[in-house]
DNA sequence: CATGAATGAGTATTCATTCAT
DNA sequence: CATGAATGAATACTCATTCAT
C-alpha cells in the first residue's frame, strides 16, 4: 500500500522493505529529538546506516520518509488494536478492555504518536488525506466497540463523540506527558478515565469513592 | 512580561507594542497557511507592513515572532476565560457555564490554537517552558471551577484529569475539525460533551434521552 | 526588455543594471573556458565579484545568467550593426561596407558569439524563442541592405539565402577559427568572401585574378 | 580506430561492436532530445537495452559515449561522401553533383549533425582533436573536388574558403532549420546555393533569371 | 558477461541575519 | 527609526562510477 505511494528505484522488494524499516527506525528517533524540519536528510541516512545516495534510492523526497514513518505507525497501531478488540463482544466489559489495551498501546508508542501528531501537516495534501483516513478508520473501530457495548442506548452522534474522546485521551497521554505524567501512571490514568467515562460527574459520591 | 523575554533595540515602548501587534497579526495568518518553518522572515515583514530591516529592530530571531504569537494567543485566551469564569460560584451550573464559554472561545480562536499546537516545539526550551506554564495556569483555572462546583465529591487527581479532559476537548474542536465539524456544530458538540461529562455512560437510558 | 524577463529582488534599478553587467562580464569568460554546464553558480558569483547570495538577488535561476549573457551579446551586436549600416544607400559598395563592418564585429566578439552558439539550447523554450527572434531581426537587417543594394535583381528567397549565408559566414569566422584562422586573417577572409559573393565561380579567370 | 581510443573490459570484439552500436543508437536519440549533459548514463543504458553495469563494461566514462556517437556520425558521413564523389572527374558538373549529394546527406542526418555541432565541446581535448581532424578530412575531400573541377582557375586559399563555405552551408541547413526550413525545401535550398556559388551577385540579371 | 545496489562528491538554491546609509 | 542590499552557511537532491554477486 505505502509502496504504491513511495516508489523506489530498487527492484528487490524484500530489500526495499528491509532498508525502509532501517530508515523508519532511524528517522523516528531523529524526528522525536529535533522535529522533521530540523532533521537533515544526511542525518537520516546516517541514522539508517547507509549513505545519502542510498537513501535516495529508496525514496524520492525527504517528505517520503515522514510518510513512511506515519504509515508504519498507523500500521502497527492498527494491528495491535485489531488483536485486542473482539467486535462480537457486547458487554460493557469488552469496551473497558478495549480502552485498557488502547491506552496501553498509546503508552508504548508515545514517541511515535507524538511525532505524527506534530508533523502530519508537513505532508503533502494527498499524503495527509491518506494518513487521516487511517485515523478515521481507527476511530471507527472504537465506534464499533462502543456501539456493540451499549446496544440501543446511545445515538449515533453520541457514539461518534465518545469514540473521539477516547481516541484523543489516548493520544493526550503522550502529547501532554509533561503535565499528565507528573500526576498519573498509565494505570491510574486509564482507570480514572474509564471511571469518569462510565459514571459521569453526577453519579453519587458513594459510587465514585 | 513578553517584552522581558524579547528585547528590542527601539526605545519607544509604545511603538514597540504597536509594531509587534502588526507583526503578530501578519504572522498568525502566515503560520496558519504554511506553518512556521515554511514562512520566511521576509514574508512576515511584508505582511506586517514594514521592511525586513525594521522587523529585526523589534526582534532578535525569527523564533521570537513565534514566541510573540504564542504569548499573544495565551493572553487573549486567558483574558476571555477570566471574564467568563466566576471563581466564587459553587454550583454545577457555573461549571457548565464555564465549559460553554471555553468551547465558544476555542471555536472563535480555532486557527490560532491550531498554530500554537503545531508549532510550540519550534520554540527554544526556555520559551517552551514559559508557554507551557501559561497552559498549566489555564488548566488550573478549570480545576478551580471544577473543584468549586463539586465540593468534596472528587479527589484531587480526578479533578486534575477532568480539567485536562475539558481543556483538550476544547482544543480538539479545532485541531480535529476535519473529523468533528462534519458531524457537529459547536453548539451540539458543546451540549453532548457536557451531557457525557455529567452523566457518564452508565446512566440509565431514560436519563440520557 | 531583458529586465522584464529576469526579475530581481533588488529595487534599485541602476544597481541591478550595474550588478548584472558585472555578472555578464564574469560569466562570459567562464562560459568560454568551460561551457555553461560545467560552470558553477559559485564560480559565476566569484568572477562577478560578489557572494553567491548576492548573485541570487539579481537572478532566479542559473539559466537566467545565460539568458542575460545572450541578450547582452545581441544588444551589442545590434547596436554596432545599426551604427555601421545605412539603409538608404543603394550601391553595391554599401553592401560591401556592411559586410566588412559585420565581419570585423564578428572578429571582435568571437568568444561571445561562440558561447551563444553552443549554449542557446540550454535556455528554456521561451528564452530560446526570444533570442532566436533577435537573430531573425539581425538577418532581416542584412536582407534589407542586400535588397537595397541590388534593386530588382534578386528574388526574395535569393535575398533571404544570401543574408543567411553572410550571417553564418560571419559567425563561422569565430566558431571555425581552429581551421580558418590558420589560413586567413580577418582581412583576407573578408575580402575573399566578398569577391566570391560578388563574382561567383563562373566568372572568367581574368576577372578574378 | 575508435576502439583504440575507448577501451572495453570485454574481450569478444564482435560483441563490443554490437553493444556499442546499440549504445550509439540509443544515445543519439537522447542527445537530440535533451542534450548530452542532461542525459544520464542510466537513461543511455536503458535506451540501449541493457543495465548500467553492462554499459560500463563497454566504456570507461560517460564522455566515451559522446565520442562513440560523434565518431559513428563522421564514419557514416564519410562513407556516403566517398560513395558519391568521383575524384577523377574534372568538370564543374561533378562539383555540382558533389554538392547535391552532400546537401542531401546533411538533410538526412540533420539531427545527428546538430547534436555533434552542439556537443563536441564536451569532449576532452584529445577527443576533440580526433573529431576535428575527421572534419578537416571531409573539408579536404570537398577541396579536392573543387580543385579538380576548376583546374588552375582558383588560388589555394580561395579553394579552401569555398570548401569551408559549402561545408558549413550543408550543416547550416540542419542547425538553422528553424529559419531556413520555413522558406526552402532541401531542393530549392540546394539549387539556389549552387546558383549563387557559380554566378555570384555581379552576374547580369539576364543570366540569373 | 551481466546485473543493479551502493556510494559520496558535487551543485543549485534558499533564507536568517547584519549593517551601512 | 527605517531601509534593503549583502552575506554565506546550510541543505535537498542528483548522478557518474564502482564492485560484489
UniProtKB/TrEMBL annotation, chains A, B, C, D:
The HTH tetR-type domain, residue ranges: 17-77
Sorted UniProt keywords: DNA-binding, Repressor
SUPFAM superfamilies assigned: Homeodomain-like (SSF46689), Tetracyclin repressor-like, C-terminal domain (SSF48498)
A GO molecular function held by the record: DNA binding
Source species, domain of life: Bacteria
Gene3D superfamilies reported for this sequence: Homeodomain-like (1.10.10.60), Tetracycline Repressor, domain 2 (1.10.357.10)
Location of the DNA-binding region in this protein: 40-59
Pfam family, one: TetR_N
InterPro entries per the UniProt record, alphabetical: Homeodomain-like_sf (IPR009057), HTH-type_Tx_Regulator (IPR050624), HTH_TetR (IPR001647), Tet_transcr_reg_TetR-rel_C_sf (IPR036271)
Record protein name field: TetR family transcriptional regulator
Amino acid at each position: 500500500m505505502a509502496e504504491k505511494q513511495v516508489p523506489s528505484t530498487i527492484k528487490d522488494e524484500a530489500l526495499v522493505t528491509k532498508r525502509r524499516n532501517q530508515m523508519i527506525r532511524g528517522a523516528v528517533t531523529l524526528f522525536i529529538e529535533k522535529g522533521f524540519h530540523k532533521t537533515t536528510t544526511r542525518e537520516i541516512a546516517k541514522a539508517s546506516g547507509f549513505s545519502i545516495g542510498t537513501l535516495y534510492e529508496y525514496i524520492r523526497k525527504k517528505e517520503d520518509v515522514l510518510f513512511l514513518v506515519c504509515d508504519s505507525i498507523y500500521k502497527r497501531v492498527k494491528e495491535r488494536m485489531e488483536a485486542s478488540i473482539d467486535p462480537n463482544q457486547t458487554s460493557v466489559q469488552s469496551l473497558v478492555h478495549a480502552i485498557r489495551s488502547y491506552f496501553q498501546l498509546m503508552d508504548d508508542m508515545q514517541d511515535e504518536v507524538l511525532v505524527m501528531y506534530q508533523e502530519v501537516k508537513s505532508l503533502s495534501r494527498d499524503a495527509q488525506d491518506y494518513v487521516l483516513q487511517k485515523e478515521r478508520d481507527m476511530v471507527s473501530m472504537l465506534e464499533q466497540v462502543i456501539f456493540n457495548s451499549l446496544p440501543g442506548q446511545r445515538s449515533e452522534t453520541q457514539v461518534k463523540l465518545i469514540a473521539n474522546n477516547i481516541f484523543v485521551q489516548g493520544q493526550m497521554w503522550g502529547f501532554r506527558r509533561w503535565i499528565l505524567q507528573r500526576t498519573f501512571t498509565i494505570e491510574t490514568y486509564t482507570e480514572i478515565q474509564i471511571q469518569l467515562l462510565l459514571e459521569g460527574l453526577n453519579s453519587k459520591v458513594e459510587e465514585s469513592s
